[in-house]
């Protein structure tokens, strides 16, 4: 009888100790998991985004530090397609100058797949030697007064205009200019004729 009671007491103590060990093990495991979560760095979505380090959106080109903002392209006041496919001219300015001349500024655009040669194409046929690779053949026409204005020339008959023009590569453009005698002040619009391009009528003259 005494042995049975001692055996039961011993079994009870073993079960009690085992239960205590299990509870301690669970507590240690829980505490370890809790510390692991605390030690983890915050996820990237929870961290504030540094705008200075963020990448620019696709298609945007940020200015370099200290760089001047990029100027927008000049707005054309008149355009005309060329005889050659995918070519055109864009008139940017026709302005009276203080020396009683008109200054014409325009761009010749080649959107084609072949180069656009200059050569003698845009010169004055009457002055072909001097006008090689120039735009000396451009004229202004005052239809109301039936008068044509030719590019101003110096004493050596060189045109006061863009000269030594290189061939225009595909998908590119070149800016050109020419000076003309100014029409009377009451002439506020005039036609522009550039060889191998369509005429542009009633182009406004600015001051």
Bin the helical content: 10-25%
Gyration radius, to the nearest Å?
42 Å
Largest sheet: 4 strands, antiparallel
Give the spatial strand order of the biggest sheet.
Answer: 1-2-3-6
Structural class: alpha+beta
The overall pLDDT average reads 80
Highlighted features:
globular, 25% strand, four-stranded antiparallel sheet, 2 domains, single chain, Immunoglobulin-like, 207 residues, alpha+beta
How would you explain this protein's 3D organization?
It is built from one helix and eight strands; from the N terminus they run H-E-E-E-E-E-E-E-E. The strands form two sheets. It has a four-stranded antiparallel sheet, with no helix packed on it. A four-stranded antiparallel sheet has the order 5-4-7-8, with no helix packed on it. 18% of the residues are buried. The N terminus is likely disordered. It is an alpha+beta fold and 207 residues long.
Compact overview of the structure:
With 207 residues, the chain is of the alpha+beta class.
Give the helix/strand layout:
Blueprint: H1 2-39, E1 78-81, E2 87-96, E3 101-110, E4 139-142, E5 147-150, E6 172-181, E7 189-193, E8 200-204
Antiparallel strand pairs: 1-2, 2-3, 3-6, 4-5, 4-7, 7-8
């Amino acid at each position: 009888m005494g042995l049975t009671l001692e055996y039961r007491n011993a079994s009870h103590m073993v079960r009690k100790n085992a239960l205590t060990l299990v509870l301690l093990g669970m507590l240690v495991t829980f505490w370890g998991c809790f510390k692991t979560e605390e030690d983890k760095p915050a996820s990237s979505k929870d961290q504030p985004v540094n705008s200075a380090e963020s990448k620019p959106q696709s298609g945007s080109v940020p200015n370099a530090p200290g760089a001047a903002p990029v100027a927008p392209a000049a707005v054309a006041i008149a355009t005309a397609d060329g005889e050659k496919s995918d070519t055109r001219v864009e008139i940017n300015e026709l302005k009276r100058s203080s020396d009683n001349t008109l200054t014409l500024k325009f761009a010749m655009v080649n959107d084609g797949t072949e180069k656009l040669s200059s050569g003698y194409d845009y010169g004055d046929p009457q002055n072909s030697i001097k006008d090689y690779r120039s735009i000396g053949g451009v004229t202004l026409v005052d239809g109301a007064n039936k008068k044509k204005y030719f590019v101003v020339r110096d004493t050596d008959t060189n045109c006061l205009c863009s000269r030594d023009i290189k061939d225009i590569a595909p998908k590119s453009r070149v800016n050109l200019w020419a000076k003309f005698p100014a029409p009377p002040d009451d002439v506020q619009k005039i036609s522009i004729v550039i060889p191998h391009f369509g005429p542009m009528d009633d182009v406004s003259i600015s001051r």
